[in-house]
Design a protein that fits this description.
Layout (H helix, E strand, L loop, with lengths): L3 E10 L2 E8 L14 E5 L2 H8 L3 H19 L4 E5 L13 E4 L6 H7 L8 H11 L2 E4 L11 H4 L11 E6 H4 L2
Parallel strand pairs: 2-3, 3-7, 5-6
Antiparallel strand pairs: 1-2, 4-5, 4-7
């Protein structure tokens, strides 16, 4: 844990505390191939891409992700969180999952630029996966099966129910 420094804690609801870490570098995977619990901030796109884009397949997924993130940034989205098998040690992830913070987002502009990113149902996610190679979820929307907002849902391992880590990207900073 020496490479991590605790940045802050925030209570997202009465039952869950989320820790955000500013890392010297993104932490290593645990014995299950997951990031340690918490939100781990990648300072640059290069740091994120070099850590998770080791294969040509992963690089292809990154191209789709970067395309959508550019649109979200244009619509004034400031923060996204990356989850799924993409931020694990899995060699060949099917796709990636991103939840984007809706705070300050110009919904009209996003609707004009990429209405597909506003679709929060199976049909929309399937279409997003075809276009961007991954799925996008607004952080504050509730995931139906768990009753948790997507930002909280992303931090739970679906197999074990244990807490796991995700990666945050500050869109205004990663390309500056």
């Amino acid at each position: 844990m020496s490479s991590l420094t605790k940045q802050n804690c925030c209570v997202t609801n009465s039952s869950m505390v989320t820790q955000t870490f500013r890392c010297v570098m993104l932490p290593t995977f645990d014995e299950n191939g997951l990031l340690p619990p918490g939100i781990h901030v990648a300072d640059t796109w290069q740091e994120f891409a070099s850590r998770f884009g080791q294969t040509s397949h992963r690089q292809s997924l990154l191209l789709g992700m970067k395309s959508a993130l550019g649109v979200l940034r244009q619509a004034r989205c400031q923060m996204v969180y990356v989850d799924g098998s993409f931020v694990t040690s899995r060699e060949h992830p099917d796709d990636f999952d991103v939840c984007w913070d809706t705070t300050g987002v110009d919904g009209d502009q996003l609707k004009q630029l990429a209405p597909l990113l506003l679709k929060v149902d199976k049909g929309g996610w399937d279409a997003q996966k075809l276009k961007y190679r991954g799925k996008f979820f607004p952080t504050q929307v509730i995931e139906g099966g768990s009753g948790k907002v997507f930002l909280e849902f992303f931090q739970i391992d679906k197999t074990t129910g244990n807490h796991k880590g995700i990666v945050a990207l500050k869109l205004r900073e990663i390309w500056s």
